[in-house]
Amino acid sequence: MHFSEMSREQLISELVRKDQVIERLQNDLKKLEIAIDQTVIDCNQNEEALARSTREKSLVEGFAEHQQLKKDDQVLTGRFDSEVRAATEETENELSRVKKAYAEKVGIGGIGIFSQKMKYIFEQAGKFHGDRSIPVLIQGETGTGKEIVARYIHYDNSLVSLPFIDINCAAIPPHIFESELFGYEAGAFTGGLQKGQKGKFDLANGGTIFLDEITELPINLQAKLLRVLQEKEYYRVGGMRKIKIDIRIICATNADVEKSVDQGRFRQDLYYRINIGRIVLPPLRERPNEILPLTKMFLKRFSAKRGKRMIKISENAAKALQSYHWPGNVRELMNAVEYIVFMYDDGELTIEHLNSIPQFQIARKQGGGSSTSFEGSGRSAPLFPPVTLETCPLPPDRLDLARLNDNLISRALEMHNGNKTNTAEYLGISRRMLHYRLERLGKKNTK
Protein backbone atom coordinates (compact mmCIF):
# COMPACT_ATOMS: atom_id res chain seq x y z
CA MET A 1 0.00 0.00 0.00
CA HIS A 2 1.36 3.46 -0.92
CA PHE A 3 1.96 5.91 1.92
CA SER A 4 -0.58 8.44 0.53
CA GLU A 5 -3.30 5.77 0.81
CA MET A 6 -2.61 5.01 4.45
CA SER A 7 -4.71 6.43 7.26
CA ARG A 8 -3.12 8.43 10.05
CA GLU A 9 -3.28 5.38 12.36
CA GLN A 10 -1.66 3.13 9.72
CA LEU A 11 1.16 5.61 9.17
CA ILE A 12 1.83 5.92 12.89
CA SER A 13 1.78 2.10 13.18
CA GLU A 14 4.24 1.89 10.27
CA LEU A 15 6.54 4.40 12.01
CA VAL A 16 6.50 2.38 15.21
CA ARG A 17 7.22 -0.84 13.29
CA LYS A 18 10.20 0.68 11.47
CA ASP A 19 11.62 2.09 14.70
CA GLN A 20 11.32 -1.39 16.24
CA VAL A 21 13.18 -2.92 13.26
CA ILE A 22 16.06 -0.45 13.68
CA GLU A 23 16.20 -1.12 17.41
CA ARG A 24 16.24 -4.89 16.82
CA LEU A 25 19.08 -4.60 14.28
CA GLN A 26 21.10 -2.42 16.65
CA ASN A 27 20.60 -5.00 19.43
CA ASP A 28 21.75 -7.77 17.04
CA LEU A 29 24.88 -5.76 16.23
CA LYS A 30 25.69 -5.38 19.93
CA LYS A 31 25.24 -9.13 20.43
CA LEU A 32 27.55 -9.78 17.49
CA GLU A 33 30.25 -7.53 18.95
CA ILE A 34 30.02 -9.44 22.24
CA ALA A 35 30.21 -12.73 20.35
CA ILE A 36 33.29 -11.52 18.46
CA ASP A 37 35.02 -10.57 21.70
CA GLN A 38 34.16 -13.98 23.13
CA THR A 39 35.45 -15.65 19.97
CA VAL A 40 38.78 -13.85 20.34
CA ILE A 41 38.98 -14.95 23.97
CA ASP A 42 38.13 -18.53 23.00
CA CYS A 43 40.73 -18.45 20.24
CA ASN A 44 43.40 -17.26 22.67
CA GLN A 45 42.41 -19.94 25.16
CA ASN A 46 42.43 -22.57 22.44
CA GLU A 47 45.89 -21.44 21.39
CA GLU A 48 47.23 -21.91 24.91
CA ALA A 49 45.50 -25.30 25.29
CA LEU A 50 46.88 -26.38 21.94
CA ALA A 51 50.41 -25.57 23.02
CA ARG A 52 50.02 -27.55 26.25
CA SER A 53 48.16 -30.62 24.99
CA THR A 54 49.58 -31.15 21.50
CA ARG A 55 53.37 -30.88 21.80
CA GLU A 56 53.78 -33.15 18.78
CA LYS A 57 52.28 -30.55 16.48
CA SER A 58 54.57 -27.95 15.18
CA LEU A 59 54.20 -24.44 16.46
CA VAL A 60 54.07 -23.16 12.89
CA GLU A 61 51.02 -25.28 12.01
CA GLY A 62 49.16 -24.20 15.15
CA PHE A 63 49.91 -20.54 14.54
CA ALA A 64 48.80 -20.84 10.90
CA GLU A 65 45.53 -22.43 11.96
CA HIS A 66 44.96 -19.70 14.50
CA GLN A 67 45.60 -17.01 11.91
CA GLN A 68 43.18 -18.69 9.54
CA LEU A 69 40.50 -18.68 12.24
CA LYS A 70 41.05 -14.98 12.75
CA LYS A 71 40.76 -14.34 9.01
CA ASP A 72 37.55 -16.35 8.79
CA ASP A 73 36.17 -14.48 11.77
CA GLN A 74 37.03 -11.13 10.19
CA VAL A 75 35.35 -12.14 6.93
CA LEU A 76 32.16 -13.24 8.68
CA THR A 77 32.14 -10.16 10.90
CA GLY A 78 32.68 -7.82 7.97
CA ARG A 79 29.95 -9.49 5.96
CA PHE A 80 27.45 -9.31 8.82
CA ASP A 81 28.37 -5.70 9.62
CA SER A 82 27.83 -4.79 5.97
CA GLU A 83 24.44 -6.48 5.91
CA VAL A 84 23.38 -4.77 9.14
CA ARG A 85 24.49 -1.35 7.89
CA ALA A 86 22.66 -1.84 4.58
CA ALA A 87 19.48 -3.02 6.31
CA THR A 88 19.67 -0.15 8.82
CA GLU A 89 20.21 2.43 6.08
CA GLU A 90 17.33 1.01 4.03
CA THR A 91 15.02 1.02 7.07
CA GLU A 92 16.00 4.58 8.00
CA ASN A 93 15.38 5.74 4.43
CA GLU A 94 11.98 4.07 4.40
CA LEU A 95 11.21 5.57 7.80
CA SER A 96 12.08 9.02 6.46
CA ARG A 97 9.77 8.46 3.49
CA VAL A 98 6.97 7.39 5.82
CA LYS A 99 7.50 10.45 8.02
CA LYS A 100 7.48 12.71 4.97
CA ALA A 101 4.29 11.12 3.67
CA TYR A 102 2.69 11.49 7.09
CA ALA A 103 3.65 15.17 7.30
CA GLU A 104 2.16 15.79 3.85
CA LYS A 105 -0.98 13.85 4.77
CA VAL A 106 -1.67 15.98 7.87
CA GLY A 107 -1.29 19.19 5.88
CA ILE A 108 2.14 20.67 6.52
CA GLY A 109 3.12 21.13 2.90
CA GLY A 110 2.09 24.10 0.76
CA ILE A 111 2.29 26.94 3.28
CA GLY A 112 2.36 30.27 1.47
CA ILE A 113 4.45 33.02 3.06
CA PHE A 114 4.35 36.20 0.97
CA SER A 115 5.09 39.05 3.39
CA GLN A 116 7.57 40.01 6.10
CA LYS A 117 4.74 39.98 8.63
CA MET A 118 3.90 36.33 7.94
CA LYS A 119 7.57 35.42 7.70
CA TYR A 120 8.07 36.80 11.21
CA ILE A 121 5.06 34.84 12.48
CA PHE A 122 6.41 31.55 11.15
CA GLU A 123 9.84 32.37 12.56
CA GLN A 124 8.12 32.71 15.94
CA ALA A 125 6.39 29.39 15.36
CA GLY A 126 9.73 27.78 14.58
CA LYS A 127 11.17 29.01 17.88
CA PHE A 128 8.20 27.58 19.80
CA HIS A 129 8.83 24.26 18.03
CA GLY A 130 12.18 24.04 19.79
CA ASP A 131 10.70 24.13 23.32
CA ARG A 132 7.76 21.84 23.96
CA SER A 133 7.31 23.06 27.55
CA ILE A 134 5.94 26.46 26.46
CA PRO A 135 2.16 26.60 25.88
CA VAL A 136 1.15 28.71 22.89
CA LEU A 137 -2.00 30.79 22.32
CA ILE A 138 -2.85 31.59 18.68
CA GLN A 139 -5.39 34.36 18.11
CA GLY A 140 -6.97 35.41 14.86
CA GLU A 141 -10.21 35.71 12.95
CA THR A 142 -11.88 32.69 11.39
CA GLY A 143 -10.01 31.49 8.33
CA THR A 144 -6.66 33.15 9.08
CA GLY A 145 -4.84 29.81 9.39
CA LYS A 146 -4.58 29.16 13.13
CA GLU A 147 -4.45 25.39 12.74
CA ILE A 148 -1.80 25.66 10.02
CA VAL A 149 0.40 27.65 12.40
CA ALA A 150 -0.28 25.14 15.18
CA ARG A 151 0.80 22.28 12.92
CA TYR A 152 3.90 24.23 11.91
CA ILE A 153 4.82 24.66 15.59
CA HIS A 154 4.50 20.90 15.99
CA TYR A 155 6.29 19.81 12.79
CA ASP A 156 8.44 22.82 11.81
CA ASN A 157 10.52 21.77 8.78
CA SER A 158 11.50 18.42 10.27
CA LEU A 159 10.01 14.99 9.68
CA VAL A 160 8.36 14.71 13.09
CA SER A 161 6.31 11.55 13.59
CA LEU A 162 5.04 12.38 17.08
CA PRO A 163 1.23 12.67 17.45
CA PHE A 164 -0.66 15.89 16.72
CA ILE A 165 -4.18 15.68 18.19
CA ASP A 166 -6.64 18.49 17.44
CA ILE A 167 -9.87 19.18 19.34
CA ASN A 168 -12.55 21.72 18.51
CA CYS A 169 -13.81 22.74 21.94
CA ALA A 170 -17.00 24.17 20.43
CA ALA A 171 -17.95 20.88 18.72
CA ILE A 172 -17.96 18.52 21.72
CA PRO A 173 -21.06 18.39 23.96
CA PRO A 174 -20.24 19.61 27.50
CA HIS A 175 -21.44 16.39 29.21
CA ILE A 176 -18.82 14.24 27.42
CA PHE A 177 -16.05 16.81 27.25
CA GLU A 178 -14.12 15.56 30.29
CA SER A 179 -14.14 11.93 29.10
CA GLU A 180 -13.07 13.05 25.61
CA LEU A 181 -10.09 14.97 27.00
CA PHE A 182 -8.97 12.71 29.81
CA GLY A 183 -10.56 9.35 28.98
CA TYR A 184 -12.39 7.15 31.46
CA GLU A 185 -11.87 3.96 33.41
CA ALA A 186 -13.96 0.80 33.11
CA GLY A 187 -17.34 1.25 34.79
CA ALA A 188 -16.93 5.01 35.11
CA PHE A 189 -20.45 5.62 33.80
CA THR A 190 -23.37 3.85 32.17
CA GLY A 191 -22.95 3.35 28.44
CA GLY A 192 -19.15 3.51 28.46
CA LEU A 193 -16.90 0.84 27.01
CA GLN A 194 -16.29 -2.10 29.33
CA LYS A 195 -12.52 -1.65 29.14
CA GLY A 196 -12.66 2.11 29.48
CA GLN A 197 -11.19 4.45 26.88
CA LYS A 198 -8.13 6.62 26.45
CA GLY A 199 -8.64 10.36 26.10
CA LYS A 200 -7.12 12.89 23.76
CA PHE A 201 -4.34 13.65 26.23
CA ASP A 202 -3.37 9.95 26.20
CA LEU A 203 -3.27 9.94 22.41
CA ALA A 204 -1.20 13.13 22.28
CA ASN A 205 1.35 12.04 24.88
CA GLY A 206 4.85 12.77 23.63
CA GLY A 207 3.48 15.13 20.98
CA THR A 208 1.07 18.06 20.73
CA ILE A 209 -2.57 18.64 21.61
CA PHE A 210 -4.28 21.52 19.80
CA LEU A 211 -7.32 23.00 21.56
CA ASP A 212 -9.19 25.08 19.00
CA GLU A 213 -11.85 27.56 20.21
CA ILE A 214 -10.38 27.34 23.71
CA THR A 215 -12.79 29.98 25.05
CA GLU A 216 -15.61 27.45 24.53
CA LEU A 217 -14.06 25.07 27.06
CA PRO A 218 -16.53 24.56 29.96
CA ILE A 219 -15.54 26.56 33.03
CA ASN A 220 -15.31 23.45 35.25
CA LEU A 221 -12.78 21.87 32.88
CA GLN A 222 -10.68 25.02 32.73
CA ALA A 223 -9.44 24.36 36.28
CA LYS A 224 -8.48 20.80 35.33
CA LEU A 225 -6.68 21.99 32.21
CA LEU A 226 -4.78 24.49 34.35
CA ARG A 227 -3.69 21.65 36.63
CA VAL A 228 -2.49 19.61 33.65
CA LEU A 229 -0.43 22.58 32.47
CA GLN A 230 1.11 23.09 35.90
CA GLU A 231 1.53 19.54 37.18
CA LYS A 232 1.87 17.60 33.90
CA GLU A 233 -0.52 14.97 35.26
CA TYR A 234 -4.24 14.18 35.41
CA TYR A 235 -6.85 11.60 36.39
CA ARG A 236 -9.13 9.74 34.03
CA VAL A 237 -12.86 9.98 34.71
CA GLY A 238 -13.56 7.43 37.45
CA GLY A 239 -9.83 6.81 37.93
CA MET A 240 -7.71 6.89 41.09
CA ARG A 241 -4.29 6.79 39.47
CA LYS A 242 -2.37 9.87 38.36
CA ILE A 243 -1.23 9.76 34.76
CA LYS A 244 1.98 11.59 33.93
CA ILE A 245 2.24 13.20 30.51
CA ASP A 246 4.85 14.87 28.35
CA ILE A 247 2.85 17.06 26.02
CA ARG A 248 2.87 20.39 24.21
CA ILE A 249 -0.37 22.38 24.48
CA ILE A 250 -1.39 24.84 21.76
CA CYS A 251 -4.63 26.80 22.07
CA ALA A 252 -6.43 28.93 19.50
CA THR A 253 -9.41 31.24 19.44
CA ASN A 254 -11.08 33.87 17.29
CA ALA A 255 -12.62 35.49 20.37
CA ASP A 256 -11.42 38.31 22.62
CA VAL A 257 -10.01 36.28 25.50
CA GLU A 258 -9.61 39.26 27.81
CA LYS A 259 -13.27 40.13 27.27
CA SER A 260 -14.21 36.54 28.12
CA VAL A 261 -12.14 36.84 31.30
CA ASP A 262 -13.93 40.09 32.25
CA GLN A 263 -17.29 38.39 31.66
CA GLY A 264 -16.34 35.48 33.90
CA ARG A 265 -16.52 32.92 31.09
CA PHE A 266 -12.79 32.21 31.09
CA ARG A 267 -10.45 31.79 34.04
CA GLN A 268 -7.90 34.55 34.39
CA ASP A 269 -5.21 32.23 35.77
CA LEU A 270 -5.64 29.86 32.82
CA TYR A 271 -5.39 32.79 30.41
CA TYR A 272 -2.10 33.87 31.95
CA ARG A 273 -0.84 30.28 31.79
CA ILE A 274 -1.60 29.64 28.10
CA ASN A 275 -0.54 33.13 27.06
CA ILE A 276 3.18 32.52 27.66
CA GLY A 277 3.75 31.98 23.96
CA ARG A 278 1.44 34.11 21.83
CA ILE A 279 0.91 34.49 18.09
CA VAL A 280 -1.62 36.92 16.62
CA LEU A 281 -2.61 36.30 12.99
CA PRO A 282 -3.67 39.43 11.09
CA PRO A 283 -6.77 39.25 8.85
CA LEU A 284 -6.25 39.05 5.10
CA ARG A 285 -7.67 42.56 4.59
CA GLU A 286 -4.61 43.89 6.45
CA ARG A 287 -2.33 41.97 4.06
CA PRO A 288 -3.61 43.07 0.61
CA ASN A 289 -0.25 42.39 -1.06
CA GLU A 290 -0.65 38.70 -0.26
CA ILE A 291 -4.01 38.24 -1.99
CA LEU A 292 -2.70 37.68 -5.52
CA PRO A 293 0.24 35.44 -4.55
CA LEU A 294 -2.11 33.34 -2.42
CA THR A 295 -4.61 33.17 -5.29
CA LYS A 296 -1.91 31.99 -7.69
CA MET A 297 -0.74 29.39 -5.18
CA PHE A 298 -4.30 28.04 -4.77
CA LEU A 299 -4.85 28.07 -8.55
CA LYS A 300 -1.72 26.02 -9.06
CA ARG A 301 -2.61 23.62 -6.24
CA PHE A 302 -6.21 22.94 -7.26
CA SER A 303 -5.43 22.85 -10.98
CA ALA A 304 -2.82 20.16 -10.34
CA LYS A 305 -5.24 18.30 -8.08
CA ARG A 306 -8.04 18.27 -10.67
CA GLY A 307 -5.98 18.08 -13.83
CA LYS A 308 -6.91 21.64 -14.88
CA ARG A 309 -4.77 24.39 -16.41
CA MET A 310 -6.08 27.56 -14.73
CA ILE A 311 -2.90 29.23 -13.48
CA LYS A 312 -3.26 32.88 -14.65
CA ILE A 313 -5.33 35.82 -13.38
CA SER A 314 -6.75 38.50 -15.65
CA GLU A 315 -6.12 42.17 -14.83
CA ASN A 316 -9.77 42.90 -13.99
CA ALA A 317 -10.02 39.81 -11.81
CA ALA A 318 -6.82 40.81 -9.98
CA LYS A 319 -8.26 44.25 -9.20
CA ALA A 320 -11.51 42.70 -8.04
CA LEU A 321 -9.74 40.25 -5.75
CA GLN A 322 -7.69 43.02 -4.16
CA SER A 323 -10.69 45.31 -3.68
CA TYR A 324 -12.67 42.72 -1.72
CA HIS A 325 -12.24 42.72 2.08
CA TRP A 326 -12.43 38.91 2.56
CA PRO A 327 -14.31 38.55 5.85
CA GLY A 328 -13.62 34.81 5.72
CA ASN A 329 -9.90 35.52 5.23
CA VAL A 330 -7.58 33.00 3.56
CA ARG A 331 -10.06 30.15 3.89
CA GLU A 332 -12.71 32.12 1.99
CA LEU A 333 -10.21 32.92 -0.75
CA MET A 334 -9.12 29.29 -0.94
CA ASN A 335 -12.74 28.05 -1.14
CA ALA A 336 -13.55 30.57 -3.85
CA VAL A 337 -10.55 29.51 -5.96
CA GLU A 338 -11.30 25.82 -5.44
CA TYR A 339 -14.91 26.34 -6.56
CA ILE A 340 -13.86 28.20 -9.71
CA VAL A 341 -11.23 25.61 -10.65
CA PHE A 342 -13.79 22.87 -10.03
CA MET A 343 -16.41 24.54 -12.27
CA TYR A 344 -14.33 25.83 -15.20
CA ASP A 345 -11.70 24.47 -17.60
CA ASP A 346 -10.22 27.80 -18.70
CA GLY A 347 -6.55 28.72 -18.39
CA GLU A 348 -7.13 32.12 -16.81
CA LEU A 349 -9.26 33.29 -13.88
CA THR A 350 -11.48 36.13 -15.11
CA ILE A 351 -14.06 38.56 -13.74
CA GLU A 352 -16.78 36.34 -15.21
CA HIS A 353 -15.61 33.44 -13.06
CA LEU A 354 -15.82 35.60 -9.93
CA ASN A 355 -19.28 36.82 -10.90
CA SER A 356 -20.47 33.23 -11.34
CA ILE A 357 -19.86 32.22 -7.74
CA PRO A 358 -23.18 30.92 -6.30
CA GLN A 359 -25.46 33.58 -4.84
CA PHE A 360 -22.94 36.34 -5.57
CA GLN A 361 -25.23 38.13 -8.02
CA ILE A 362 -27.83 38.82 -5.32
CA ALA A 363 -25.15 39.74 -2.79
CA ARG A 364 -23.64 42.17 -5.31
CA LYS A 365 -27.03 43.76 -5.97
CA GLN A 366 -27.47 44.22 -2.23
CA GLY A 367 -24.10 45.94 -2.23
CA GLY A 368 -25.15 48.24 -5.10
CA GLY A 369 -22.92 46.70 -7.75
CA SER A 370 -23.52 46.73 -11.49
CA SER A 371 -24.40 43.63 -13.47
CA THR A 372 -20.85 43.17 -14.74
CA SER A 373 -18.61 44.44 -11.96
CA PHE A 374 -17.32 42.27 -9.15
CA GLU A 375 -16.34 45.30 -7.09
CA GLY A 376 -19.81 46.81 -6.67
CA SER A 377 -20.01 50.33 -5.27
CA GLY A 378 -17.26 49.94 -2.70
CA ARG A 379 -19.15 47.73 -0.27
CA SER A 380 -17.78 44.22 -0.29
CA ALA A 381 -20.30 41.44 0.03
CA PRO A 382 -19.16 37.94 1.06
CA LEU A 383 -18.48 35.55 -1.78
CA PHE A 384 -20.68 33.02 0.00
CA PRO A 385 -23.42 35.08 1.72
CA PRO A 386 -25.84 33.44 4.17
CA VAL A 387 -28.75 31.56 2.62
CA THR A 388 -31.95 33.63 2.83
CA LEU A 389 -35.49 33.29 1.50
CA GLU A 390 -34.49 35.63 -1.33
CA THR A 391 -31.53 33.47 -2.37
CA CYS A 392 -33.22 30.14 -1.73
CA PRO A 393 -37.04 30.35 -2.07
CA LEU A 394 -39.00 27.67 -0.22
CA PRO A 395 -41.38 25.31 -2.05
CA PRO A 396 -45.08 26.14 -1.53
CA ASP A 397 -46.24 22.65 -0.54
CA ARG A 398 -43.70 20.72 1.49
CA LEU A 399 -39.96 20.85 2.25
CA ASP A 400 -38.11 17.63 3.04
CA LEU A 401 -35.38 19.13 5.25
CA ALA A 402 -33.60 15.84 5.92
CA ARG A 403 -33.35 15.10 2.20
CA LEU A 404 -32.14 18.64 1.51
CA ASN A 405 -29.38 18.25 4.12
CA ASP A 406 -28.37 14.89 2.65
CA ASN A 407 -28.18 16.35 -0.86
CA LEU A 408 -26.09 19.30 0.33
CA ILE A 409 -23.65 16.99 2.14
CA SER A 410 -23.41 14.67 -0.87
CA ARG A 411 -22.65 17.55 -3.24
CA ALA A 412 -20.09 19.07 -0.87
CA LEU A 413 -18.41 15.66 -0.48
CA GLU A 414 -18.28 15.25 -4.26
CA MET A 415 -16.88 18.76 -4.67
CA HIS A 416 -14.00 17.88 -2.28
CA ASN A 417 -13.30 14.47 -3.86
CA GLY A 418 -14.53 12.57 -0.80
CA ASN A 419 -12.19 14.34 1.65
CA LYS A 420 -14.05 14.45 4.98
CA THR A 421 -11.85 17.08 6.60
CA ASN A 422 -12.23 19.57 3.74
CA THR A 423 -15.94 18.82 3.42
CA ALA A 424 -16.58 19.40 7.14
CA GLU A 425 -14.63 22.66 7.01
CA TYR A 426 -16.58 23.77 3.93
CA LEU A 427 -19.93 23.00 5.59
CA GLY A 428 -18.93 24.61 8.88
CA ILE A 429 -19.52 21.47 10.96
CA SER A 430 -17.22 19.20 12.94
CA ARG A 431 -15.69 16.13 11.33
CA ARG A 432 -17.47 14.00 13.95
CA MET A 433 -20.85 15.45 12.94
CA LEU A 434 -20.06 14.90 9.25
CA HIS A 435 -19.12 11.28 9.96
CA TYR A 436 -22.44 10.77 11.79
CA ARG A 437 -24.42 12.15 8.85
CA LEU A 438 -22.41 10.15 6.32
CA GLU A 439 -23.23 6.99 8.26
CA ARG A 440 -26.90 7.78 7.68
CA LEU A 441 -26.16 8.23 3.98
CA GLY A 442 -24.14 5.02 3.79
CA LYS A 443 -20.99 6.88 2.70
CA LYS A 444 -18.56 5.85 5.40
CA ASN A 445 -15.87 4.73 2.97
CA THR A 446 -14.53 8.17 2.16
CA LYS A 447 -11.20 9.76 2.92
Give a structural overview.
The protein is built from 17 helices and eleven strands. It starts with 7 loop residues before the first helix and ends in a 6-residue tail after the last helix. The relative contact order is 0.07. Helix content is 54%, strand content 9%. Helix 1 packs antiparallel against helix 2 and helix 7 packs across helix 9. The protein has 447 residues and is an alpha/beta fold. The chain is extended and about 115 Å long. The model is unreliable at 105-109, 359-366 and 368-385 (pLDDT under 50). The longest helix is centred in the first third of the chain and has 47 residues, at 59-105. A hairpin with an 8-residue loop joins strand 6 (233-234) and strand 7.
Comma- or semicolon-separated keywords:
alpha/beta; 447 residues
Please summarize what this structure is.
The protein has 447 residues and is of the alpha/beta class.
Q: How helix-rich are the residues, as a percent range?
A: 40-55%
- In terms of DSSP E residues, the strand content is 5-15%
Q: Report the uncertain regions.
A: 105-109, 359-366, 368-385
* Major sheet: arrangement of strands: 2-5-8-1-9
* Helical stretch tally: 17
- Which word captures the global form? extended
What about the largest sheet?
5 strands, parallel
- How big is the Rg? 30 Å
Helix and strand run? HHHEHEHEEHEHEEEHHEHEHHEHHHHH
Distance between the termini: 15 Å
